[in-house]
Each structure stands twice: as C-alpha cells, then as structure tokens.
C-alpha cells in the first residue's frame, strides 16, 4: 500500500469513528486532542494522524470549526 492509499484509508477510518463511535453528525466536531485519543485507541499512530486529518480536510470531508475543532461536513457525513 502506498503512503497516499494508507492516508486515504486512515482518513476514511477517522470519519467512520467520528460518526459511529463518537456519534457525531454533519456540523459536529471534536477537538484535536480528543480526536487523537480516539484514533490511538484504534491503532492509528500519531505519525499517521495529521496526514489523515489533512487529507480529509482537502477532500472536503472535514473542516476547521470553532476553537480548533475538526467538524464533519455534509460530504464527509454522507461518505461514511
């Protein structure tokens, strides 16, 4: 698996966890620290987290919200 494929996989996993474990909906968000803990519990290393978050933002799946939260967009929610 290439780095890009791994990053895409981790970004999709991130969305899955936000929707199905954290029960977030479009417009809801998590602060970076909470999101990091969720990802670590599910085997996404610290080194893999930022590229996954950046990729999800670039795809329009996440957006930066108030107080640095990462919010799920309508597009990101529909993807999951």
From TrEMBL:
This is Uncharacterized protein. It comes from Comamonas squillarum.
């Amino acid at each position: 698996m290439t780095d890009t494929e791994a990053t895409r996989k981790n970004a999709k996993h991130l969305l899955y966890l936000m929707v199905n474990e954290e029960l977030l909906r479009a417009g809801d968000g998590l602060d970076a620290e909470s999101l990091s803990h969720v990802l670590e519990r599910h085997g996404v290393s610290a080194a893999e987290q930022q590229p996954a978050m950046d990729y999800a933002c670039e795809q329009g799946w996440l957006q930066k919200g108030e107080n640095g939260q990462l919010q799920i967009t309508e597009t990101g929610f529909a993807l999951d």
